[in-house]
Amino acid sequence: MDPHSQGLPSNLRIERVATSSLSSHIITAVQALHDECFKGEAPKDKQESAREFLDRVLACHDEGSCVWFLLWLSNTLVGMCTVTPYTRSLYGWNLAVSIAHRKRGYGRLLMHHAQEYAYQRGLGELSASVEVAKTRLVAYYTSLGAKLQTTGQGGSNAPPPPSARITKAFSCEQVKADLEMSSAIVWKRANANPKCKVRTLTIFSSCAVMIYVARILHRKC
Ligand SMILES: CC(C)(COP(=O)(O)OP(=O)(O)OC[C@H]1O[C@@H](n2cnc3c(N)ncnc32)[C@H](O)[C@@H]1OP(=O)(O)O)[C@@H](O)C(=O)NCCC(=O)NCCS
């Protein structure tokens, strides 16, 4: 994929990789990001090999059809998700953004790239599973147009299921609009950060100058 065609800041790129094409170097980065974002899921008693890690995170999915979206900031893996076709939708999981790089629009960007891929494959829907108790996460997905489906899981007296299926249907126009919107948010938030740093630096240097002047005046007195 040509990074320059993605409409993203020059240090940011999304790579789409089949599981069979993941190099050991990339699997190490994916494993580290997964451990960081899904704390407590990795076995505590032993170091997992790359093979064991893939078996765990790909679970029951057919490895040959699993594709990874990897988001690189320069040479650092900062985000990812895995997708596989499932009936008429593209099912996604392992959506993760490193803690230090959250709230920059990367999660949304990954989902919208997966959505474009689904569209290119003739699939009209993205789907995923979500823990119902994670209300913030559910609200995030629904704010992006997903619908929660809790029906069809047990009878009317059954306790609410711990996880639910979420789906998002889309049109060609929606795919384009969503990608433009998420790229614009990434640009906006990327530009906001340096400004913030400059403002902090200005305040610190002003304080330093004031302290310096105050000391000189104090000495003269
Ligand atoms: C969910 C996740 C991928 C979002 O990544 P992101 O790059 O920060 O996402 P965006 O910048 O597009 O949007 C940020 C939004 O994430 C939402 N969010 C969802 N779950 C969140 C959580 N546990 N903590 C903080 N924000 C969360 C917030 O609503 C936030 O919106 P806000 O900026 O208006 O407050 C990231 O929080 C993550 O890796 N979480 C841990 C792994 C996980 O739970 N993955 C989902 C598995 S189903």
Automatic annotation (TrEMBL):
One molecular function GO term is:
acyltransferase activity, transferring groups other than amino-acyl groups
Q: What is the name of the protein in this document?
A: N-acetyltransferase domain-containing protein
Please provide an example of a Pfam family that matches this protein in its UniProt record.
Acetyltransf_1
Record-annotated membrane-spanning stretches: none
Task: Please state every residue range assigned to the domain named N-acetyltransferase.
Answer: 17-173
